[in-house]
Amino acid sequence: MTPDLVAELLRQLMKEAMILAAPVLIAAALLSFILSLFQTLTSLQEQSLTTVPRLAAVALILLAGMPWFLGRMANYTRHLLLDLHRYLG
Model pTM? Predict the structure, then answer.
C-alpha cells in the first residue's frame, strides 16, 4: 500500500465523516446561536434553557436522519470492501 493510496483513503474517510456530521453540527450551532441571542435579549442566564433544546434538536435530527446516515455509511463500507483487492495488492 503506497503512501498516496493511504492518503486517498484517509481523504475519503474524512470527507464522509464531515458529510455525516454536518447536519447535526450545523443545527446545534444555529440553535445555540439563536438561544444565546434570546438569553442576551431577555437577560435570562439559565443553563438548562440552552442545553435541553439543543439536546432535543440533536436527538430529533439523529432519529429523522438515521436511514440516510446508515445508508451513507453502508454505501461507503460496501465501496471500500469491493475495492479491497486494490488496497492490499
Answer: 0.78
DSSP codes joined into one string, 37-86: HHHHHHT---THHHHHHHHHHHHHHHHHHHHHHHHHHHHHHHHHHHTHHH
Written as nine digits, the cell of 59 is: 436527538
Higher pLDDT, 60 or 5: 60
Contacts with 38 (C-beta within 8 Å, 6 or more apart), sequence order: 44, 49
* Owner of C-alpha cell 483513503: 9
Dihedral (Cα; 47, 26, 59, 67), 10-degree rounding = 180
CA distance linking residue 11 with residue 62, whole number of Å: 24
Residue 51 identity (one-letter amino acid): T
Cα 35 from Cα 12, distance rounded (Å): 35
3-state secondary structure at position 11: helix
On whether the CB atoms of residues 35 and 69 are closer than 8 A, the answer is no
